[in-house]
Predict the 3D structure of the following.
Amino acid sequence: MIIMRKGASREEITSVVNDLKAHGLGADVSTGEIRTVIGIIGDETKISATHLETLPGVKEVRLIETPYKLINREYSTLFDGKAESRIVKIGKVEIGSARPVFMAGPCAIESKDQLMTIAEGVKSAGAHILRGGVFKPRSSVHSFQGLGSTDESAREALGWLREAGDKYDMPVVTEVRGESQVKIVAEYADVLQVGSRNMYNQDLLIQVARTGKPVLLKRHFGASIEEFLSFAEYLAASGNKDIILCERGIVPVGRGKSFTRYTLDLQAVPVVQKETYLPIIVDPSHAAGRRDLVMTMSLAAIAAGASGLEIEVHHNAKEARCDGQQMITVSEMGYLIEACRRLSESLQPFRMTGMGDKCIN
Amino acid sequence: MIIMRKGASREEITSVVNDLKAHGLGADVSTGEIRTVIGIIGDETKISATHLETLPGVKEVRLIETPYKLINREYSTLFDGKAESRIVKIGKVEIGSARPVFMAGPCAIESKDQLMTIAEGVKSAGAHILRGGVFKPRSSVHSFQGLGSTDESAREALGWLREAGDKYDMPVVTEVRGESQVKIVAEYADVLQVGSRNMYNQDLLIQVARTGKPVLLKRHFGASIEEFLSFAEYLAASGNKDIILCERGIVPVGRGKSFTRYTLDLQAVPVVQKETYLPIIVDPSHAAGRRDLVMTMSLAAIAAGASGLEIEVHHNAKEARCDGQQMITVSEMGYLIEACRRLSESLQPFRMTGMGDKCIN
Amino acid sequence: MIIMRKGASREEITSVVNDLKAHGLGADVSTGEIRTVIGIIGDETKISATHLETLPGVKEVRLIETPYKLINREYSTLFDGKAESRIVKIGKVEIGSARPVFMAGPCAIESKDQLMTIAEGVKSAGAHILRGGVFKPRSSVHSFQGLGSTDESAREALGWLREAGDKYDMPVVTEVRGESQVKIVAEYADVLQVGSRNMYNQDLLIQVARTGKPVLLKRHFGASIEEFLSFAEYLAASGNKDIILCERGIVPVGRGKSFTRYTLDLQAVPVVQKETYLPIIVDPSHAAGRRDLVMTMSLAAIAAGASGLEIEVHHNAKEARCDGQQMITVSEMGYLIEACRRLSESLQPFRMTGMGDKCIN
Amino acid sequence: MIIMRKGASREEITSVVNDLKAHGLGADVSTGEIRTVIGIIGDETKISATHLETLPGVKEVRLIETPYKLINREYSTLFDGKAESRIVKIGKVEIGSARPVFMAGPCAIESKDQLMTIAEGVKSAGAHILRGGVFKPRSSVHSFQGLGSTDESAREALGWLREAGDKYDMPVVTEVRGESQVKIVAEYADVLQVGSRNMYNQDLLIQVARTGKPVLLKRHFGASIEEFLSFAEYLAASGNKDIILCERGIVPVGRGKSFTRYTLDLQAVPVVQKETYLPIIVDPSHAAGRRDLVMTMSLAAIAAGASGLEIEVHHNAKEARCDGQQMITVSEMGYLIEACRRLSESLQPFRMTGMGDKCIN
């Protein structure tokens, strides 16, 4: 981190950035209420701190060892003087504020009718953002892969998603499964989702970040939190800090029945909030893999401080072509949102006191 | 399971039990509102269902494959006609009702003063049960092992615990680490805790169960839920169904920093409630291993439906001889209880409707 | 699986394939010594077995539930009448025979000099295939990402690799990290490696398979063996069965020091050999993450029946820009190959008897 | 560690030990070829190094942070001047030398006939030590628990084991499952086995160690290597260094079929050998849980440097009352031993050169 003097001029800043470039390094320039800080992107050992400190306008240079620097909570304190959390704005929806955000919709888009029916339902249930999969990541090549299997059907399905979002006034989120889909998805969607399986896919992350659209990054089910944040850093280092992190369960451990598909690691919520300034949401549907745990674990996630939930909803789950056993109904979704809101409100007084700051994270 | 006819006589029941004994099997006789059901303890293949069905008073025989039969929720429906959850009573405290129970106290009892100070504090904070370790399980033989290292100091420390419980009107819970400690602990404590490391210790479980005192059984950090319940079954098969289960975190998975000592598996709460009729509580202190997550994860645990919490509290955590970094203060404990109660109350309307039954577990 | 009658005509086969296509399904036609078998690619529920059995030339239809059908060992017995293992040929090198194959080279290609020096060294040490990374997957965006960061430097580095392979008469293998690199890597390399982090990347797998080049697929560190094989199936379903599987370690479990980067799961070797007809090799360098275990674990891998090893070798590990701590020297590599060969030969008599068939896998 | 001067007198040593005792600490006195070293048992912060260095005969004090000090390879170099591995002697059998030791026998002793038949078989197959379970740890209370369920049948079964061992000239090993069994097992067995589930059972470890008999300690399936060694330290701190460690698999990770009961972590073999001076063996039977992997993984274990194997053998596995699916036959055992010996011999030249020292661990 290169901390500039208060009032450092635009020329001084540019000159530092150029110096970094000349050393094969990138720069993340953040100007806050107090001052400008320049985060170094790339291998810091290529350049000497002593050299940087001689440049005009530079106050101090701090080399940080962690693989996630640009999304680090500490970083934001340097230029803003306080540990502000980031609020990611998607149209009128704000993720990261005190009010939990609900994303809902089918696992996979199957037809226009199906999508419109569900969209209308989740809107009236109180959801803010509509989700629907076109490019489905699947464990078996022999399973239904989503409507994205041809370019034509992909465009058609993405078009329905856009139309549903517009009609019911909800921004839309959908997954980008591979690099070749980035362009087309960015044309239609408001938020680009990178699924759990692609969390380590740095080439995809870089391309998704460059679209400039907000990115919803799910933790890989085999990743430690440190790795999760290290890959979120790829997004930030590509110039995009509109990042929403998502905990969706990690691989089960142990011999014998686990009763759920994955282990939902809710401690990740306060840990990520302490380590970074980014909002984190929770996906209880994929973690449980069974609908009868979704409501309970949604409540637990909101209690843990999650900024929102992503939930799979279907009007007719038994006939769903994908993940039917974990989708809840539209009326259950309404009930869930209502319960989560009450819970969230009941905790407001505790989150706002000084003591709450220390205690409730 | 041997389902007796309605109105089966005492003689008929005894005769079935004796028949089982003659085959080297044990019997768990449960008489409910509807009828009597006899659970077979031991290897069912030793006896034929056809034979059992010829015995007087027997209505039907159902062989169940699961390793946990006596604590199975289904089992209780057979004689009570409804899936009643069990409420474990410890003096005036009830675990398993809608009202969450708070157990609090120091990791290890260090002195009478320390214990009395903390006991007074947690009582006024609203805790129901006092905890305090005498026989400490430790990863290193070179660490402080608790005051239980000699028989004399063990009795002394257990006496303080009893005195503190009596003085502040709280039942007391403490860990039995080895078989040779069962007798002495049962003399002083109201609840016998079997720690995570001893979950697989079947000899200890049998002896603890036989004291007749309620048992608090913690999930091993490497155990699947199926294994957890299979070992709780050892308690029930030894004639003791006053079992309180406790989730306290499982081994972390993945490479890189995990930021917590264990992964708290809150999905275990609703899963255990669906599989068995036993109450389950949560210990967020050991899962996190750091005090700044305890409040947040307590709230998440209550939201997930936990019947209570076990929390480590110290009046002077920095000087604690064990686990200092995860203990919270007395005033934080009061704050935590207050927040958990509000949360619990805010969810009551949702838990009580018919829909909630399906949704909130 | 559609089992054709002996002597089914080309027209009959084509007609079945067309029928599948009409139902939106793909076909994998395998003609062996006994008969032709047609594997169905895609969701089998779209078509009825009864219908298929009425088609001319069809003897029998077997619907298989497993997500890996085309690489299943059982599948190959249907048309060949015996459970033949597949030998993947790369120039003169055969992977899957009794003779272990050694792939060696630097983690990352750093310069032409570095690569040529190591290539000469590993050739004289007895290696068969040269490895060298151009597109490096890295946990931190701030670490050296390989020479593949620009198109120009990527082509230059790939050219050196090709040149070194030709000069020292070794086929070359290198990793394809993203979809946009498939074309360029296929121009230069003999084997395309899909790294652990991309195992779940189905879009990449499909594109890599379609190049027609042999593919080296590494198991993801969070994947069960079932998932590993399910994703290898993506390659086969894309028409490429020249698949070499590779075990390289899974995420460590437990609290406290693990002493290695990953847990090397050598049971995967015989399990994969029983489940599929594909060869499997082992990468002990990444599993251990430290050079002093590489020799020992190489021996263990060969004893477990691995068809080969992929080892990181450097002439000057201390100055390596990536993974220096796990690379061994050229002379250690020679020593390792010599020891592995002796071990492999000492086990030949046991692997070849009838009893060995049952016992040594 | 308190390093005494060369030629320190007996009085000086006793005086240091007494000083430690006065501070509530224990002492492990090791006198080697070079000098005497005194390991401190307990919490070193209770005493000051400066004070210790003033005591007569003391040369130097080194405080070591690791939870395993007394079994640390470094410790032994202090008094012997070289990193000697420990050879545990059980009658004529030596564990820890270049020659692998084979322990074989049934999972559970079922009858005298069964045991004698198997004992004769494994002896002629080349086994060195006879194993057989009397106190069986079981996941389900409803499964066969071994003949140890009553005191009388336990003594009878242990008597057969002793008799079989004497008749066929093999030392015998059997598991102690609970504290109350320590005395009786020590009367009959030559080696006391502490099973995987009891690795964390410090009370049992202390009592087992105090019998003075060699102890076979299995790694818990949820334990890191650091934890494994920390609990082995409990044995050494109780005055018993005749410790044989055993790797037997850790909990599987991931979603989907794992195909084996546990993940066999063979990297543990060289890691343990580097960290401590204790011998380590491998149990492939429990790791795999299926007999068709036992031979292959035995070879891999020996190649990894294991000092021996513990294998479950039965003359009629299909009728075995426990673990039938993983026991191999007597003739397979003979075949396995023969193959392991050849493999071990083929590697001798590599293990003995200077280079091998660095490379093969």
